[in-house]
Specification:
The complex is a heterotrimer. In chain A, about 25% of the residues lie in helices and about 15% in strands. By secondary structure, chain A is of the alpha+beta class. Chain A has one domain: Alpha-Beta Plaits, CATH 3.30.70. By secondary structure, chain C is mainly alpha-helical. The chains are: A alpha+beta, B alpha/beta, C mainly alpha. Chains A and B meet through helix 1, helix 2, strand 2 and helix 5 of A and strand 3, helix 3, helix 8, strand 11 and helix 22 of B.
């Protein structure tokens, strides 16, 4: 059983935000009304965090950190869901089942990374968004929580394709949208349990760290620290 | 149990009310599903088509996913050697542009101040008759053309059209052309590319190299590999944008002082004697006068006093530059956006000359023979859009996809000037700020519906990226290339152009590639081993039998390139005369001492003002600052403290042209004394846009030679 | 005491109303199809296999109702048929798609793939769609209602995954 994880190399990331846009378009994430966005309810599964305060002016070393769901191995969110709308699959992906979700938002409160977003309204989407919905992903109704799912619909399709062709799932078959579009290949994805895979080796790199590791969530999305060049 | 009548009635009433409520509720919830929707017949079959993104000069390969023949998503083409499968946010939303409801569906004519739909024949006929009248009366010079395109083929077609008409009033806004303007003005040969494989030191003067540049995605990868090889990137810029996040050193300098920095570095290199003496002796004619100028005026301490950068920093940078084996000082079109931009570019060219242009390369490719790879602004043609204001004798103005009213500070003057022109024809697919003033609009196809090609050498090889229609055009839009070829044919401006279309022109222009036989279609990654030897020996990895077959394969694979071109070093004659380095503008004040300055910076969501029309990018525009749909300004924390501006508070910004509100963000990436403001919001022609356009509040400061607006020399007050 | 009974009666009435209307709705005839297509003639008499017309059942998630190109394979010339045959000939000659109404409808939040079930799982069409070859006019009700309980019953019986995220997306 593979254990899917991701390693994001902050040394390579150029903060172009292609992963943010790709995730939004691949997963039919809603565009919220302007007032909601201004009040902090914009829905982005992948967010780009910018940290600019390392170093003193002008020797500052800003870093851009793409942050999606950490797909924890000990997810705080699943422990509080009353209806098991979010749970951890055998292959490590923390799933989110929209028809099951009752919208209580306990999981949102419990997630230390605040990766979960909520559909507060059913807003009418602009026409061009409606016409270019990804047919592989549902459009969430009002009142459900959603988050990054490592594009699990792509896994569904890849597994089916592999089965139809009478073969096993190969490493390149299933990549989430953010991994596919990154211009500098800063995001590595794959089976963490396979010692030969790129992502497995990268996750054991000396530069690797996880966000808020001390909380014991065991995030499966790890980061490689940027290499700061010597002055 | 005894139930009397009253109780019975109560029970009955209760149950009936319950029944009705339940039944009606159930019906209301379920009946819409009970009425079956008409079947969406498509089996949702997926197909893929390759094309090229046209939203910025990069020309990245796109792979469009079509479901039942309609585009749904855009991804990158993994076999394109420009982007290797990556895309930026602008390219990812190509499909959203296609379905944009604000797109014009047919040619329009302005009647009584409002736009009305007309037929193409009527619109085209009006243009032809007007042009014929001008030609007959000898008024050819009264026809002007303002164009913005990244395709050299389209640019050359427009140049051909204007040459045939006989008018020199052509303003071609092409990024690569603009980047090469300094070389053209010096009548020097220009470099084709920077050899990122061998460069070990990149000194970037003001280019937002990984965001808006000649090839942002290619440069992103190239800079990462430069740093992996322990090379250095040094950024000289007024703001540390994401292009500079990985820089080894940031020298905060205002754009008008770039030349000073370059010459101060030259001073150190010349005094140390570490310049390439043989190159300078053989190719830099005016070197002795140049040396005199630099030694007298550009000591690092003098520059420190003028510009505010530490002299030690300048000296370290200069020594590193001199010690590197293949250093490159880089600039692109962005350098022209200051009042002495051209002169600064000359200074940087001179600096590169001191190290013999070691990191630059030239394609000595005979395979480019016959391909006109340069676009315009050559031939000493210095007409630019600002001339519209002074010249009152223009009869016809063509505008091709340039939103110059949006990205020029002197928008009001330009508006008045354009309104004076009797016939203004625009080819824009949207009614943007510039097209609002048009009398006639013949909307161009959307990028996913048109045929075009992009030729570039930035990656170190000649590469032709093909843009093909992935879907038949939805509306009655017309490819502008077809309009212009028809005009050339009908007005008899060139020999043998009757009944030509843009496709036939493109085929003829691309034929030299087929004839020459080198290179490969983008059918696989760069060949290695045996395939490489075969390729170099002339075997085609994807064989084609004749030109039509080649054309089909070209469209199928998305383009052609030559992975093993013959390259030579770039060793031009440096025809720079020292008096060209004299600055006529004395902007020598230390930035922190002067008044606050407004500095406009760019993001990779909008390129020159004609892109931010899609809801996804508009929402994402300020996401990394947690600001949505509002204009914000960035202030250095020390400046903010001095002026008592709290983080994320509302401030009022006042320039000479007016005042506006914005949210102030503390950011150490801003120079003290600067107020940084992003470019891209504030489209007044689009009802869905918010924010303000900072260019319209900027002072009318232009480069005296090129007429390009300065984006960083506006004085501002903050309240 | 009376109050409780009244409330109970209201609630019972409510529940009864919901169920009654539900039953009525699920039994009303769905929309009438534009042509009285007879599976008995095509699949029964002429023994055309299901996949010949519903062409994408092995390769796609949706099997697809055939578009006019498929019908025109046989109906491009007038055949000796009933009144419906004249109608389909008109559609073919004008190359207009027949506006069929859908009986089976899987909502977007569930993923049902014909390729998985028929192509890989080797299920027979009749297991979920019933004996279509015996219907002389188009079906008006779903043979096996598209309800999660029906899906799960079969999955449990055949020991296939019942993990939520395998079908919900």
């Amino acid at each position: 059983m593979p254990k899917y994880g991701m390693v994001i190399d902050l040394n390579k990331c150029t903060s172009c935000q292609a992963c943010v846009t790709a995730c939004k378009l691949e997963n039919n994430v809603q565009i919220v009304p302007i007032e909601d966005a201004i009040n902090g309810r914009a829905m982005f599964w992948m967010k780009m965090l910018t940290m600019e305060y390392d170093g003193d002016y002008p020797d500052i070393k800003p870093k851009a950190l793409p942050r999606n769901c950490m797909q924890c191995d000990e997810p705080p969110c699943i422990k509080v869901c009353p209806v098991r709308a979010t749970y951890k699959r055998d292959d490590g992906i923390v799933a989110q089942i929209y028809p099951q979700c009752i919208g209580c938002r306990y999981c949102m409160a419990n997630c230390p990374y605040t990766v979960k977003v909520f559909n507060w309204h059913k807003t009418e989407q602009p026409q061009e968004i409606e016409k270019s919905y990804n047919p592989d992903v549902s459009v969430r109704p009002k009142g459900v929580v959603e988050k990054c799912t490592f594009c699990v619909h792509r896994l569904q399709i890849a597994q089916e394709k592999a089965k139809a062709e009478h073969r096993g799932l190969e490493p390149g078959d299933y990549v989430p949208a953010c991994v596919e579009v990154c211009p500098v290949s800063a995001i590595l994805f794959g089976d963490l349990d396979d010692p030969q895979s790129d992502v497995s080796k990268a996750s054991r790199d000396y530069r690797a760290f996880g966000l808020l590791e001390e909380l014991g969530t065991v995030p499966k999305v790890r980061y490689l620290n940027a290499i700061e060049s010597e002055e | 149990m005894q139930i009397n009548r009253r109780d019975f009635v109560k029970l009955l009433g209760g149950s009936l009310i319950g029944f009705t409520v339940g039944g009606v509720g159930e019906a209301l919830l379920k009946i819409p599903n009970a009425v079956m929707p008409i079947l969406y017949k498509g089996p949702k079959t997926e197909s893929w088509k390759l094309t090229t993104c046209a939203k910025c000069p990069g020309a990245c390969g796109l792979r469009i996913r079509l479901v039942d023949g309609l585009p749904v998503q855009a991804f990158g083409n993994p076999l394109s050697p420009i982007n290797f499968g990556g895309v930026c946010p602008m390219g990812l939303t190509s499909v959203e542009s296609l379905y944009n409801p604000d797109r014009l569906m047919s040619p329009m004519k302005k009647v009584n101040g409002k736009f009305q739909e007309i037929s193409y024949t009527e619109a085209y006929g009006a243009i032809v008759s007007e042009l014929r009248k001008n030609i007959r009366q000898g008024d050819e010079h009264k026809i002007a053309f303002i164009a913005q395109t990244e395709s050299v083929f389209m640019a050359n077609l427009i140049q051909m059209f204007m040459n045939g008409i006989g008018s020199r009033r052509l303003y071609m806004d092409n990024f690569v052309g603009n980047s090469r303007l300094p070389y053209q003005n010096l009548k020097m040969d220009h470099p084709d590319f920077i050899d990122f494989e061998h460069t070990d030191y990149l000194l970037n003067f003001g280019s937002q190299i990984t965001e808006i540049s000649e090839s942002p995605l290619f440069f992103s990868r190239a800079i990462n590999s430069l740093r992996e090889r322990k090379g250095k990137l040094v950024t000289v810029a007024p703001k540390l944008t994401p292009s500079g996040f990985k820089t080894s050193r940031w020298m905060p300098v205002m754009p008008e002082n770039f030349g000073d920095i370059a010459l101060a570095i030259a001073y150190v290199i010349i005094s140390d004697g570490t310049y390439d003496k043989s190159f300078v002796q053989n190719h830099f004619e005016d070197f002795d006068t140049f040396r005199e100028l630099v030694i007298q005026n550009y000591t690092p301490s003098a520059v420190q006093a003028r510009v505010g950068v530490d002299a030690d920093q300048i000296i370290s940078t200069a020594r590193e530059f001199a010690n590197a084996s293949a250093p490159a000082a880089y600039f692109d079109e962005a350098i022209l956006h200051s009042s002495n931009g051209l002169r600064n570019a000359y200074a940087i060219i001179a600096l590169n000359a001191l190290k013999g242009f070691a990191a630059f390369g030239k394609l000595s490719e005979a395979g480019l023979k016959g391909l006109k790879i340069d676009s315009n602004r050559d031939g000493g043609n210095t007409w630019n859009k600002n001339n519209l204001i002074g010249e009152s004798d223009i009869d016809v103005l063509f505008i091709y996809r340039s939103n110059f009213i949006f990205n020029s500070p002197n928008a009001e003057d330009l508006r008045k000037a354009v309104s004076r022109i009797p016939l203004v024809v625009s080819f824009s697919p949207f009614i943007d700020e510039t097209t609002e003033l048009a009398d006639l609009i013949i909307p161009d196809h959307d990028d996913l519906e048109k045929l075009d090609a992009y030729l570039s050498t930035t990656i170190g090889s000649p590469i032709l990226s093909m843009q093909q229609p992935v879907v038949k055009s939805f509306y009655s839009t017309v490819h502008t290339g077809d309009v212009i070829t028809s005009l050339i044919g009908d007005l008899n401006l060139q020999e043998g152009w009757k009944d030509r279309s843009y496709e036939s022109y493109l085929k003829a222009a691309i034929k030299p590639i087929y004839d020459h036989g080198v290179g490969m279609l983008m059918s696989q990654k760069k060949p290695t081993g045996i395939e490489k030897s075969l390729q170099q020996a002339g075997w085609q990895l994807v064989p084609y039998s004749d030109f039509d077959d080649f054309w089909q394969q070209l469209l199928r694979y998305g383009g052609w390139w030559n992975p093993f071109p013959k390259v030579t070093g770039y060793t031009p004659e440096v025809l720079l005369k020292t008096d060209q380095l004299m600055s006529t503008k004395d902007k020598g004040s230390h930035p922190a001492a002067a008044q606050l300055r407004l500095n406009i910076f760019f993001r990779n969501f909008d390129y020159k003002g004609n892109l931010l029309r899609n809801p996804v990018l508009t929402e994402q525009f300020g996401m990394d600052r947690d600001i949505y749909y509002t204009t914000w300004v960035e202030v250095n924390p020390k400046t903010a403290e001095k002026l008592s501006i709290a983080h994320r508070s509302k401030v009022k910004i006042k320039t000479e042209k007016g005042g506006f509100e914005a949210i102030a963000i503390h950011s150490p990436t801003t120079m003290p004394g600067n107020i940084d403001i992003p470019f891209g919001l504030g489209h007044t022609a689009d009802k869905r846009m918010l924010g303000i356009n900072p260019v319209h509040y900027s002072d009318d400061v232009f480069d005296e030679h090129t007429g390009e607006p300065s984006y960083s020399e506006t004085l501002v007050k903050i309240l | 005491m009376k109050k409780i009974f009244v409330i109970l009666a209201t609630v019972t009435g409510f529940v009864a109303g919901v169920f009654a209307v539900n039953k009525i709705i699920s039994n009303i005839d769905r929309a009438v199809q534009p042509i009285n297509f007879s599976h008995a003639v095509h699949a029964g008499k002429f023994k055309i296999p299901c996949m010949a017309c519903h062409q994408h059942v092995l390769t796609n998630a949706r099997a697809g109702i055939p578009n006019i190109e498929v019908c025109s394979a046989c109906h491009s010339s007038p055949l000796k048929g009933g009144p419906g045959e004249k109608l389909v000939y008109d559609y073919v000659t004008e190359h207009k798609q027949i506006p069929w109404y859908s009986i089976y409808y899987v909502p977007s939040y569930a993923y049902f793939s014909h390729r998985r079930h028929v192509g890989i799982g080797k299920l027979e069409c009749t297991e979920c769609h019933g004996d279509m070859a015996s219907l002389a006019s188009p079906p008006t009700k779903q043979f096996l209602q598209v309800k999660m309980s029906n899906c799960l019953n079969c999955h449990v019986k055949r020991h296939v995954t019942t993990d939520c995220s395998h079908c919900h997306r």
